[in-house]
Amino acid sequence: MKVFPLLVLFGSASLPALGAPAPLPAAVPEAVGLSTERLRRVDAFVERLEARGEIAGAVTAIARHGQLVRLQAAGYGDLAARRAMRTDDIFAIASMTKPIATVGVLMLLEEQRLLLSDPVEKYLPEFRDAKVAVPRSGAPGGYVLVPVERSVTIHDLLIHRSGLATGAGPAAAALRAAMGALPENAVLADRIRALAGVPHNFQPGAAWEYGPSLDVMGRVIEVITGQPLDVYLRQRIFEPLGMKDTGFTVPAEKRSRLAVIYQRRADGSLAPAPQQDPAPRSFSAGGGLFSTAPDYLRFCQMLLNGGELDGRRLLSRKSVELMRAKHSDPIPLSFLRGQYFGLGVAVQKDDGDSGLLSSPGTFGWSGAYNSYFRIDPKEQLILILLVQRSPANLLDLQYGYQNVVMQAIGD
User: 3-state DSSP call for residue 328?
Assistant: First the structure.
C-alpha cells in the first residue's frame, strides 16, 4: 500500500499539510481513549483492500470527543495518472447525500414551513389523483391501475414508504419511458413531474422500498423555499458548517482533486466505472453531492453535538433526536440487519443481530460507491471511510472498516 501522510495523527497533534485548517481540533489517540497501536490496524486493513485490488485508494477519518485523531490518505485517487490520493480529494458520496438533505427538511420543520404529515400534492400538485400499478397477468403492461388509498406524505418520502415507481416495480417500463422522453437539459422540476405521471409500486405507507423519494423531497424543498436545491443547502448547511468543498457541482479548478470511481474487471483488476457528472443540471437530494472527508466530518460532528458546531446551531437537539428515532423497522435490506430506519439514517438496535462492533443508537448511512460513515453517541465517536468503488454495499469494506476502528477503543 502506498500511504500519503498529508495528515497522520498517530502520535502528534500536528496540523494538516498544505496550509489547510483541521476540520476539528487535533489530539493524540490516547488523549481521547483510543489506542495508537490498535489504530494501526486501520492501515493494515486498507493495505489488504488495496493489495487485493478492491480499491485504488481511500481517505479515512476518525474523531472522538470532538477531536480529530486520524485523517489519512492512502493509495491513488487516479490509477492511470498515478495521482496520489489526498485527504482533501473530492468524492461522489452518492446516498450519503440523504442525511444532509434530511437535515435541510428538518430545518423547514423547525420553522413550521412544513409538517411531516403534509401530503406531497400540497407542494407538488402533479401528484394529485395518483394511481397504483397492481400486477395482473394478461393485463396491458402486466398490471391494472387502482387509486391511491391516501396521499403520499412528507414522512413517507423521508422513510422510503412512498410507493413511488422504481426500476424494479410493475411499472418499470413506464418509468423508463417517462424518463427517457425527458430532454438532456431537464432540471429537477421536469424529472419529478415525469415521475409523478408513472403509477406507484404500492399503496403509500404499505412497505419500505429504496427509491426516488428523497429526490421528490428535494423538489419540495425548492417549492417551499423558492430556491434551487443547491443554493438552499449551500446557504443553510454548507456555508455555516464551513463545508467549502461540498456541492452538487465541482468547479473546474477543483476537478483535478476528483477521485476516480472504479469497478472490477473479470480478471480482478480495477477499471474506471461511469463517472458522476461534475456539472449536472438536475440536483439529486437522494444521491448527487460531492464532498470531502474534512467537510463530511464537520457535518457529522454537528449531528453528534445535537445540532450545533463551533457555537453555531443548525438544528435543535430535539430534531436530531427525531432523526435518530425509530421510524421504520425492519429495514428489508440484508446488509442493514440489526438496524432500524430513522430519518435519513440507519440506527443500530440494542441487540447483536448486526454482528458489528457498535453501540445501540449508532447511526449513519453509506453511498453507492461504498463511502460510509457512522456516529456513535455513546462513545462520542465518528468514523468515515471514503472510497470510489462500484458496486454498492461491499461489506468487507464498510463493516470491516467500522469493526477495525471500534476495536481501538480503550477507555
Answer: strand
pTM value > 0.85:
yes
* CATH code of the domain in which 212 resides: 3.40.710.10
End-to-end CA distance of the chain: 30
Q: Work out the angle at residue 211's Cα, subtended by the Cα atoms of residues 214 and 335, and round it to the nearest 5 degrees.
A: 110
Per the CB < 8 A criterion, the answer to whether 74 and 44 are in contact is: no
- pLDDT digit string, tens, across residues 272-327: 999 999 999 999 999 999 999 999 999 999 999 999 999 999 999 999 999 999 99
Query: In 10 A of CB 57, how many CB atoms?
Result: 30
What's the pLDDT at 12? 33
Sequence-distant (6+) residues with CB within 8 A of 87 are: 6, 7, 16, 59, 71, 72, 73, 292, 293, 294
* Phi, psi angle pair for 260, to nearest 5°: -75, 140
**In a domain? residue 8:** yes
Cell (9 digits) for 353: 443481530
Domain match, 40 and 133 both: no
Spatial CA neighbour of 15 closest among 64, 66, 71, 63: 71
Provide the domain limits for residue 399: 3-89+261-282+292-334+352-406
Provide the domain count of the chain.
2
Cell of 318: 430535539
Same domain membership, residue 19 and residue 52: yes
